[in-house]
Write a structure and sequence with these properties.
alpha+beta; Restrct_endonuc-II-like; PDDEXK-like_dom_sf; DNA-binding; 325 residues; five-stranded mixed beta sheet; globular; Lambda Exonuclease, Chain A; DNA damage
Amino acid sequence: MFQITPYPEWSWSHSRDHLFQECPRRYYYHYYGSHNGWLRDAAPEQQETYRLKQMANLFLVFGDALHQAADMHIRQFQAKNHLFSYSELFTKIRNMMNQAVLESKDIEQWQAAPKKRKMLVEQYYYHQLPKRIVQIIKERMETCLTNLLDSESMREITTDPRVEILEMEKLNTIYVRGEKVYVKLDVLYRIGDRYIISDWKTGQEDESIEEQLYLYAYYLHREAGVPLSQIEIRTEYLLTGECRKTYVTEANLEQVEEKIVSSTAEMKSYLHDPAQNQPLSRLDFEGAANPRSCMYCNYRQLCELKDRTLLDAADEAAPGAEQAG
């Protein structure tokens, strides 16, 4: 049964750690400042922070659209043994992007229902879509969709009759040394005694995702009892068409545990009362090491640190804006 609490429940995830490492102040707004902001009697700043939390930049909206297309494609094949064409999926992705742009132009309607409507960070703060980023997205739509349909995992899922889909876009909860951890796989399937986890990536290659991959294997090995020798993790980089395969050892799983323990300790050092997950003051959460991250931060209007950057052009993409899965 849902209960209203003064502070959010504590949990750990790879995305939470990523946000904390990028900017503790943004982390504060996202997990603490926005808490209970959906309630009608919440303080005005809570409500505002909650609304801002729902925004996304163009790269994230595009990444989500590609993931939805992959999900629809696989489910269509499962249900009807029929595949969408490239043009059908391209139209769906383009429509999702256009809908996000259209909804972003009506701030009042978004403010009334921030969970149900889209708001782009670029439109909200700069009242226009940066031309350079729009062009990048248009180019990536064609490239990423082509590589998605041609990817090793998608071809295998849609042509090998032995494939058994086990999970798609399911949020799972596990416990690592007593800490509640969230894990979400793009798609998990089995062929005989082989378990394949496929992760679609629409952004640039990033070495930091290795920890995320180890966590996927940790979940499958420790929770489902699948031997590590039977687990294969595929990172499908849709920008380049490269499929990178990862095989995990027990030593890697120990790395996962140590990472979660150390990350948790660092996050909890910002808590006034760890038992209640009560944070320190907002001002105790310092800003991003790179001030350019402020340009496309959801919480820019609330944070006095936003003016650390003197960049003139709103169409210059900020590092950290591109974090789509």
